[in-house]
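>> received
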Amino acid sequence: MRRKLVAGNWKMNGGLAANAALVADVKAGLAAVGANADVAVCVPAPYLAQVQAAVAGSALALGSQDVSAHASGAYTGEVSAVMLAEFGCKYAIVGHSERRAYHGENDAAVAAKTAAALKAGLTPIVCVGETLAEREAGRTNAVVGGQLDVVLAALDASDVQKIVVAYEPVWAIGTGKTATPDMAQDVHAMLRARLAAKNADAAVRVQILYGGSMKPDNAKELLAMSDIDGGLIGGAALKAADFLAIVQAAQGN
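>> returned
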């Protein structure tokens, strides 16, 4: 059985006082319910040091929301994977739909960032997803599978088991719309088949997360699907009670 992973993506939200309160509440909640799932928070870069200290010694892992494809150099504003590792990051989100849409990141850039994260010992959370127009045109598998294929082509087969994949239907992020559990499962199963084509043994171990507006009221049904191994959580990650409810759903509580 694959262990579930619930990763909170705070996006561009937070503040020193708010972060301290949120992490304290999440840590207390995790201590109460146990740690039968992997749990992480991916925070804005300025708060990495604060949250690194706050999660020390707890079951809560730290992640970044992006990573540079470059190791060092004249790349103003970029943050390298080695820097993130120095601040205790375990995970790095790569290719989030907002990075693709607002910063022009293409599949090749996402593949390069994935490789950079792996080289520094980080676990990349590789995001893939389709727009509403692409879904309505019947192109979901071609678009989403193609995005993953570009990343896999840049990796050695032995690296497949070191990544996490997150399916985030773009049309369901922040819109209140959610793919039905069966719709999400179909895409997750397709993604696992793509992983298996690269490395069949690794594919059964890779966590594939659902990232399209998972909330306490739909988490249990989504997480009951055989190929949905957790969630990449946006808005609900900013409320400790909601985030912990999803963690409990992931643990089967």
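>> The mean pLDDT is 95.
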